[in-house]
Amino acid sequence: MDWMVAASSLAAVMMGIGALFIRMRAAKKPASAKKIIMPPLFMSTGALMFLFPMFRVTGLELLEAAAVGCVFSILLIKTSNFEIRGQDIYLKRSKAFPVILMTLLVVRIVGKLVLATAIDIGELGGMFFILAFSMILPWRIAMYKKYILLKRQLSGRSIAITEKTAF
């Protein structure tokens, strides 16, 4: 079982590094509602793991994992902002984001190593899925709200520009 914890921790590190690169590339292209909404939708399919008894968690474990995920999401929400460039909306680069993401990853790995001695590996996998989903969902909802506000501001600005040029 130790190899499973090590393998899943290595996978988490690889995904964290991948997320950093994706985030850096995303800041170079205009944001869209679809790009904001799709990750939690794709991730939600992972909930199918709970069809298998080994991944099922107790009500208390569910609440604990969801609460930790929601707390972690606050850091991501605070470091994810948008800006208007020309007629497009871009994700602002944050110097704190990579540090926060890596810190959350380290906390997650340490937590997994500590909890792996007390909780079955399947339940632990379920808890960490819940934690991750509970972190990503509020973060993406907050990003979507920020995006929509800027989109409205941008469309109001383009209407004003059109009205000025019409006369």
Please explain how this structure is put together.
- With 167 residues, the protein is mainly α.
- The chain has one domain.
- 74% of the residues lie in helices and 5% in strands.
- It contains five helices and two strands; from the N terminus they run H-H-H-E-E-H-H.
- It has helices at residues 2-26, 33-44, 59-78, 96-115, 121-166; strands spanning 82-85, 88-91.
- Strands 1-2 form a two-stranded antiparallel sheet.
- A hairpin with a 2-residue loop joins strand 1 and strand 2.
- Helix 1 (2-26) packs antiparallel against helix 4 (96-115) and helix 2 runs antiparallel to helix 5 (121-166).
- The protein is elongated and about 55 Å long.
- The mean pLDDT is 85.
Q: What topology emerges from the helices and strands here?
A:
Blueprint: H1 2-26, H2 33-44, H3 59-78, E1 82-85, E2 88-91, H4 96-115, H5 121-166
Antiparallel strand pairs: 1-2
Question: How far is it from the N-terminal to the C-terminal residue, by CA?
Answer: 73 Å
The mean pLDDT is: 85
Helical content class: over 70%
What's the order of the H and E elements?
A: HHHEEHH
Largest sheet: 2 strands, antiparallel
**Count of individual domains:** 1
Number of helices: 5
Low-pLDDT ranges: none
Radius of gyration: 19 Å
Per the principal axes of the C-alpha atoms, what is the gross shape? elongated
Structural class: mainly alpha
- Order of neighbouring strands in the sheet with most strands: 1-2
Instruction: Name the beta content range.
Output: under 5%
The total of beta strands comes to 2
